[in-house]
């Protein structure tokens, strides 16, 4: 089943020709919503209500209040006989407080966030285990992306470790150039991740539409990706699946409250790993972007992500990848056969020599020869980034040189519905297994809801 670990680049060609409009998708989703609501109704016994804190809080100040009055004006208190009333009140409140405490104890291990707390608006992407939705958190109107992953598909693809790992790594990271996590939860059929919503779509969609990017656009994108990677590496995590599908465009702007699209963030930590010295067996990834040392089952380190970054630069400059082929073996043979380099004659008009040099150094087959092998400073110090305004980029004060159309859907609805159909077939074949406790228990501990509202607000200001 090894091949199931590999992710081939989606061939989202001709993505400008959309057959389904957002409203058509909306109609399809209404049906899904109805089905989901029915499912929620059936799940009510298993999905408890959120914790109740209100009564508990009320009881404490009330009793403090009555004792304060008593000490200040004891003689008057005696005449008006408030003591008896407040004692009664005290008993009632004490009783309510006890109930609230008991309820709290009962609910302690139960999820605070669940599916029916969100309005599902429409599908914005699709992955190996299910759809990604634009959702609204009913409680506060906040918009998020929700990655829904079918347990049946996860089991069918032998990927329980990957999804548990994704949730664990995500919860240790928080950065303006990553898609950050807010909540994780599950029901009987699915796992859910609630993430930053990136309304600009992914770079596979945009490169499909544009065919190539300009030098300025490519440098800007690569710089954003670099900042996300530099942070992940500082936390000892390798992404290992950097490719256009996993790079999404963010709305942004701080100057005079202006907002524009075009900052890139890294998403999909499905095969990310914390660095271990002995990792030659970790061979997941996407052939074409996968570093040769991973392909050849050798121990590998942070430089694998810089190789993928180089492939992206090459693709954005020339409209093709350096090593192509239909199978993993084809691509491996090509990598082993020769070191691809951008030749002087291939550099497009208006692109600098420095750009080609930067990309050539990233796509080095031998990790030790690769830019970034000795640390991220090697990328920052390259002449292509001479005088680059890194701190302005970090603060998102630069205007992106690529601004996608804000009025269009930035995703390929046809591609989504095709992949959804394939997923649904597999789900049907494997869903019976979800009845087994031994299967469900493999997902235990997936929930994460310990982010306070304050943290959420901070996140959204990135
Ligand atoms: N936070 C997000 N905002 C907007 N779109 C997203 C977001 N996360 C993912 N997507 C879209 O959904 C697709 C699938 O999500 P991804 O996390 O890559 O799933 P998988 O691990 O199955 O590949 C992505 O290629 C992207 O187009
Ligand atoms: Mg992906």
From TrEMBL:
Molecular function as annotated in GO: ATP binding; protein serine/threonine kinase activity
Q: Which Pfam families match?
A: Pkinase (PF00069)
The annotated region (Disordered) lies at: 1-26, 60-81
Q: Which residues bind ATP?
A: 157
Q: Which PROSITE patterns is this protein grouped with?
A: AGC_KINASE_CTER (PS51285), PROTEIN_KINASE_ATP (PS00107), PROTEIN_KINASE_DOM (PS50011)
Single GO biological process annotation from the record: intracellular signal transduction
Residues forming the AGC-kinase C-terminal domain are 386-458
Which transformation does this protein catalyse, written as a reaction?
L-seryl-[protein] + ATP = O-phospho-L-seryl-[protein] + ADP + H(+); L-threonyl-[protein] + ATP = O-phospho-L-threonyl-[protein] + ADP + H(+)
CDD domains listed in its UniProt record = STKc_Yank1 (cd05578)
Question: Which residues belong to any copy of the Protein kinase domain?
Answer: 118-385
Comp. bias regions, Polar residues:
14-26
- Asked whether the UniProt record includes Lyase among its keywords, one would answer no
InterPro entries associated with the record? AGC-kinase_C, Kinase-like_dom_sf, Prot_kinase_dom, Protein_kinase_ATP_BS, Ser_Thr_kinase_AGC
Oxidoreductase recorded as keyword: no
The record's EC number reads 2.7.11.1
UniProt keywords (A-Z) are:
ATP-binding, Kinase, Nucleotide-binding, Serine/threonine-protein kinase, Transferase
Family annotation (Gene3D superfamilies) = Phosphorylase Kinase, domain 1 (3.30.200.20), Transferase(Phosphotransferase) domain 1 (1.10.510.10)
Protein name listed in UniProt: non-specific serine/threonine protein kinase
| Organism for this UniProt entry | Paramecium tetraurelia
Upper lineage is: Eukaryota, Sar, Alveolata, Ciliophora, Intramacronucleata
